[in-house]
Design goal:
It is a single chain. The protein is of the alpha+beta class. The protein has 6 domains: 3-22 and 41-47 and 772-883 and 972-1010, no CATH class; 52-139 and 353-407 and 460-617, Alpha-Beta Barrel (TIM Barrel), CATH 3.20.20.80; 198-298, no CATH class; 623-767, no CATH class; 889-964, no CATH class; 1017-1138 and 1177-1195, Galactose-binding domain-like (Jelly Rolls, Sandwich), CATH 2.60.120.260. The chain has 23 helices and 69 strands. The strands form 18 sheets. The protein has an 8-stranded parallel barrel with strand order 1-2-3-19-20-21-22-23, surrounded by 4 helices. A 6-stranded antiparallel sheet has the order 25-36-37-43-39-40, covered by helices on one side. A 6-stranded mixed sheet has the order 27-26-31-32-34-33. The longest helix has 33 residues, at 443-475. It starts with 38 loop residues before the first helix and ends with a strand. The model is unreliable at 1-37, 190-198 and 279-308 (pLDDT under 50).
Length: 1203
């Protein structure tokens, strides 16, 4: 059964009704190789629990009930989820009756684990309340995160100093001394902590772009405007930058600026955050040496590499006076001649708390560089809940989570001096004046010391926080789940400690680089599962307006980047069993709860995901490039230069996997995990490498590896200096030879080579390495995403159509000597590829795609009975393709204006520029539309347009999405296609009359023709539409024509949300049911789900275009009873309730307090039918198209043997 007409409702091939047409001729679902059922096949058809998607299960501010726990978990089980992660948050929700970690909370938690065990679900728990990171009221200031702090005292020489040194600034009345240091005051007084005048920052140029600037957007004026408005920071994200110049690619923000009269440049990786020095405090930080976490990058002048010697403090001029200070802080010292600065250096608590936690669970974050501090934190929460659940720990409760790191920097811990000395080989104490803004020794020496400090912090985070947490999990029979990013450390090093490493991606975006980061960690370290917070959303992108079809292309794109376990963000725990849509997690997240209108219908989507995830968890990923992230810290992931050519994939790798177990096999860099790469690419901006790492690279090159990148100039570390720089030069000379990246671009070294200045395309050409996956699309706009895995001898390729249109492509795979099969995750059907060819190490397969369709192409070695001459390699026909043209959309006028007339802006040009492919989708907001025409006033976007010359108007309030046209056409499928019969013989399916000619690999010409295929028949006439009781709609209405419910005159229909039932009697001629024919019902456009039955025979759930189903086995000649149940989304009913008086008090969009009628278990006193905890819609919001929109047609296909 070809992909165009694959039905999306069938969970497994064995559940599909058998089509008894043409006897032995029809057999497209039979495997091409005649192989017995194997592990790959059986796991695909019946995915194990490990392959099923999961969800985050947010327990909202103590609003918990046992009835809700049971109902939630049973609903998860019913639709096929594998488990859930419990995260306790407040989320702006009124407080509930169950205080975090109270006796009742612990009883409820234990009950949840027991219920999960009863249902066969797996639970994970976040290691503290809130989502970041590891904190609670049991952590004392001594056990919390620590930061350096200091005070300075100026002392005149030639005197006997006897005084109490000022205690440095402290937090939470906690302070411990580290050292007292003195040095002669520099001739030029440094600015950092003493400056009281903000510097002048001028943005000269700013570009948000792909790393090689193949796609870029100029954001210079945008950043200038932010600074003028007093904005203190901006994220390097497509949202903050006002658009995505390179969807699906990693991006960076490039700045040219002048600060304090000094020019500088800066690169901020995507999802980093840029701080503008717009205040005295921020300027002081900006003028310090760079030591901030990656996601808090300060605009600062270039490092003072031209500092004169007299401005630096000689290292031997730093005097350690620690022994001369008493416990009370009194220093007694005979001061030598000259003016001296005495620094009392110590550490204090950062005061950072976990968030966003319920009040009873809020407390200090534990010290991330101390195992004993983490032990205390573990015992404060995890130890107690594990004790409560007893033998279910490690069974139903099988994992613990550290979420994304969002609790700031830490630069000291008790014992740090010893750890530093052990790791770096020298004592850090005399270099600590650096943290007061001084230059010690020289600018270069200072930069090296700070590099060593950051590297030590990263090592301690990885070992004593992430690594020790993993050990504690394993000691208690748990897996460790981690999102290792946004912190002051090396993400890959910390993530390597996890059993399941995670990223995140947001609905309405084009992806997130944390997915590739998580996948790279898994691939490098041999982990089979890559998870992600999936489809999390802002209020604008969420608010119950998503369905599986709207999310599928993004989800498939994330699959192609290495993700293989969705963990939905989010499911808000529903404490009630009679309120809908019910609880939210404040304004955030993709709403995925049992109260969804389409919860049960969504099972088909869940089955699709499980089929995909099983295959994507098999074997190992195939990639050709390893981008080295460098040895510096903090670093998340650096890639992109030189650019990766189309058709190849990559991973990021760190120093750890290279130093430990990396070898060379068959000329490819091969890690201990089995991952292998044709080239290792060094970071272009990091020309410094340590001798041990560079020596390892030398050894790999001698063994045959290819390294691409610039010659390293020195070691970044003070360890072993200056001999370390001598060794770096020796190794670099051996590896790079005379290469300079300009005239000499390559050097042979042993069995390998080092390349500098060549593109990767040239590198691969020299290796004769062809692209792993390429495609030639039938349309000029075909866009496919793919990933390749190798499981034993099976090559597994996932290929997805990234457009919501029918499409086709000839796809080329770097595989030979194997037979391609198509494994369809939407249906569970496995079939042989009908048309393919193989030559020169490549196999080309013709693939047809439904809108947002996807398939797995799996190559396995041929079995008996299959020969190279049996299959079709090409085909032509006399049938003209069905033309498709999206109606032309022209924006005539667009105005962004206050609803009350307080101000407006003409945004015609900006909105017209957002039209892509004659479609417009705008997230209405001041950031997207270039400014706020009326601050503190509600605004809306109004657009006048023409669609193929027909005038129209649309408007949407801010934070909403304006879409034109509301329902876009998906085009038309191909009118014929080759298939493989049950006996392996070629056949053709024709949807219209015509002739088809096929050519086999053995050179034979085969023909098939049809002359009497019935034309499509439109289903016309009235429909009966019935509604469920108690949701505001009439029992039934009669429709003369199919229309959107939102256009109906009856308010109960117009505002209806839920499932309504269409019924109609249709007449089917015997001609359409002749032997050798298939009869299909095409529903046209549906918003949003359709459940079809014909003559009482259920035909499944359709959740994406084409809404078409094979009705051959259910149809009969003559009268047939057609029933179509259609389910839409929540917004229309929520908007309908906004027409009624309020039944609760609101603080903006947030619920102020629980209304008494809700607490009393009564219905709304104002007649509202819904209840929810966040107000996303208002009475003037635009209703969403809903219902069966058609046109409905009967279509017939003829199956012809090719002879």
């Amino acid at each position: 059964m070809p992909v165009f007409y694959r039905r999306l409702f069938v969970a497994r091939a064995s559940q599909m009704p058998r089509l008894l047409l043409l006897g032995s001729l029809i057999g497209g679902a039979v495997p091409a190789l005649g192989a017995p059922v194997d592990g790959l096949r059986s796991g695909f058809l019946a995915p194990p629990q490990s392959a099923k998607p999961q969800t985050w299960w947010h327990w909202m501010n103590g609003n918990i009930s046992k009835a809700g726990i049971t109902a939630d978990l049973e609903a998860m089980k019913r639709i096929g989820l594998g488990g859930a992660t419990i995260v306790n948050v407040d989320g702006g929700i009124p407080e509930g009756p169950v205080e975090f970690m109270s006796a009742q909370w612990r009883e409820d938690f234990k009950f949840a684990v027991q219920e999960a065990d009863r249902l066969g679900l797996k639970l994970t728990v976040a290691n503290c309340a809130g989502w970041s990171s590891s904190g609670g009221p049991w952590n004392t200031p001594a056990n919390g995160m620590q930061r350096l702090t200091s005070s300075e005292t100026r002392v005149a020489g030639g005197t006997a100093f006897d005084a109490v040194l000022a205690q440095p600034q402290t937090t939470l009345n906690y302070y411990r001394d580290i050292a007292v240091l003195a040095f002669k005051a520099p001739a030029t007084r440094p600015e950092p902590s003493l400056s009281s005048t903000p510097g002048k920052l001028e943005i000269k140029r700013a570009s948000y772009q792909s790393p090689v600037a193949t796609a870029a957007v100029d954001v210079t004026e945008r950043l200038r405007d932010m600074i003028k408005r007093g904005q203190t920071s901006v994220g390097a994200t497509s949202g903050d930058m006002g658009g995505d110049p390179a969807p699906g690619e990693v991006k960076e923000l490039i700045l040219d600026f002048v600060l304090d009269g000094k020019p500088g440049t800066l690169t901020i990786e995507e999802w980093g955050r840029l701080i503008f020095p717009t205040s005295e405090k921020q300027l002081a930080e900006a003028r310090k040496q760079e030591k901030n976490p990656m996601n808090l990058t300060f605009v600062r002048p270039p490092a003072p590499t031209d500092a004169r010697p007299k401005e630096a403090i000689p290292l031997d001029g730093v005097v350690d006076l620690t022994a001369k200070m008493g416990a009370e802080g009194r220093l007694r010292w005979d001061v030598p001649a000259g003016e001296w600065v005495v620094v009392r250096m110590g550490y204090t608590a950062t005061g950072t708390e976990n968030h966003p936690a319920p009040a009873a669970g809020r407390g200090l974050e534990c010290d991330k560089m101390s195992k004993s501090a983490l032990d205390t934190h573990w015992n404060g929460f995890m130890g107690k809940v594990l004790s409560d659940v007893g033998p279910l720990a490690g069974k139903a409760l099988d994992s613990a989570l550290i979420d994304s790191y969002e609790v700031g920097n830490q630069d000291w811990t008790p014992g740090f001096q010893l750890e530093f000395r052990k790791r770096r080989g020298y004592d850090p104490i005399k270099y600590l004046p650096t943290f007061t803004g001084q230059v010690v020794g020289s600018p270069e020496t200072t930069e090296r010391f700070l590099w060593d400090m950051r590297r030590t912090v990263a090592d301690l985070f990885a070992e004593n926080y992430y690594g020790h947490f993993a050990q504690l999990c394993r000691q208690n029979g748990l897996q460790n789940v981690t999102e290792p990013y946004f912190g002051p450390y090396e993400s890959m090093q910390s993530g390597a400690t996890a059993d399941v490493v995670m990223g995140e991606f947001w609905a309405g975006s084009q992806g997130n680089p944390t997915i590739k980061l998580a996948a790279s960690i898994a691939h490098s370290y041999g982990k089979s599962v890559v998870g992600a917070e999936s489809f999390t959303a802002t209020a604008e992108a969420g608010r119950w307006q998503n369905d599986p079809y709207s999310l599928k292309t993004l989800g498939d794109l994330m699959f192609s980047q290495g993700l293989n376990r969705y963990i939905f963000h989010r499911y808000a725990m529903q404490p009630w069993t009679n309120r809908a849509p019910g609880m939210t997690m404040g304004e955030y997240g993709f709403h995925f709860e049992r109260t969804l209108t389409w919860w049960q219908q969504g099972k088909s989507w869940i089955d699709y995901i499980a089929h995909c995830q099983f295959l994507l968890q098999q074997g190992r990923a195939v990639a050709d490039v390893a981008y080295f992230t460098g040895e510096s810290s903090p670093v998340q992931m650096r890639i992109g230069k030189p650019a990766l050519p189309a058709g190849y994939d990559y991973d990021a790798v760190n120093a750890d996997v290279l130093l430990h177990g990396a070898t060379v096999k068959n000329g490819r860099l091969t890690l201990a995990s089995g991952a292998s790469y044709a080239a290792l690419v060094l970071p272009p901006a990091d020309s410094n490498l340590t001798p041990p790492l560079l020596q390892k690279l030398r050894d790999l090159v001698l063994a045959g590896a290819t390294v691409v990148g610039p010659r390293p100039l020195r070691s970044p570390s003070l360890t072993g200096f200056p001999n370390s720089d001598v060794r770096v030069k020796q190794l670099a000379d051996e590896m790079w030879g005379k290469s300079d990246g300009v005239r000499v671009l390559e050097n042979s070294c042993g069995k390998g080579r080092v390349v500098w200045g060549k593109s990767l395309a040239n590198v691969f050409a020299a290796q004769k390495l062809k692209p792993d996956f390429q495609y030639n699309g039938a349309s000029g706009e075909t866009k496919l995403a793919s990933i390749h895995r190798l499981a034993g001898e099976a090559d597994i390729y996932f290929v997805s159509n990234q457009r919501q249109l029918f499409d086709a492509a000839e796809c080329s795979f770097r595989v030979s000597g194997k037979i391609p099969e198509l494994w369809h995750p939407e249906s569970g059907v496995i079939e042989p590829a009908a048309m393919w060819s193989s030559a020169n190490g490549l196999t080309k397969v013709r693939l047809d795609f439904e809108p947002a369709g996807s398939t797995f192409v799996i190559f396995r070695k041929p079995s008996g009975g299959t020969t190279a001459a049996d299959h079709i390699v090409a085909g032509t026909s006399s049938i003209a393709s069905v033309g498709f043209k999206q109606p032309q959309l022209v924006v005539q006028r667009a105005v962004y204006a206050a609803s009350d007339g307080a101000g407006s802006a003409d945004v015609t040009a900006k909105v017209a520029g957002m039209v892509k492919g004659n479609q417009l989708a705008v997230q209405v907001g001041s950031g997207v539309l270039g400014g706020d025409p009326a601050r503190m006033h509600v605004k809306e976007l109004r657009v006048d347009y023409t669609l193929d010359g027909v005038a129209g108007h649309a408007s949407t309030r801010e934070n909403g999405t304006l879409t034109i046209p509301a329902i876009a056409s998906v085009g038309a499928p191909r009118q014929w296609e080759p298939i493989v019969a049950k006996n392996g013989a070629p056949a053709v399916k024709l949807w219209t009359n015509g002739n088809v000619q096929l050519r086999t690999a053995g050179g034979k010409t085969l023909r098939a023709s049809a002359a009497n295929v019935p034309a499509p028949q439109k289903v016309t006439g009235a429909w009966s539409l019935s509604f469920p009781p108690n949701w505001g709609a009439p029992p039934s209405v009669q429709l003369a024509d199919l229309i959107s419910w939102s256009d109906h005159t009856a308010p109960g229909v117009r505002y209806f949300s839920g499932t309504a039932t269409y019924q109609k009697q249709i007449t089917i001629s015997a001609e359409r049911l002749r032997a050798g024919r298939e009869l299909w019902l095409d529903l046209g456009a549906v918003k949003n789900f359709a459940e079809v039955s014909l003559n009482g025979k259920a035909l499944g759930v359709l959740w994406k275009p084409p809404f078409r189903v094979n009705v051959t086995q259910a149809a009969k000649a003559g009268a047939n009873q057609l029933t179509v149940k259609v389910t839409n989304l929540w917004p229309n009913r929520l908007i309908g309730d906004e027409q009624l008086p309020p039944d609760a008090e609101w603080n903006g969009s947030a619920l102020k307090a629980w209304p008494q009628w809700l607490l009393d278990g009564k219905p709304s006193p104002t007649g509202r039918l819904t209840f929810t905890t966040w107000r996303f819609w208002n009475k003037d919001s635009q209703l969403l198209p809903s219902g069966l929109l058609g046109p409905v047609k009967l279509e017939t296909a003829q199956i012809i043997a090719a002879k």
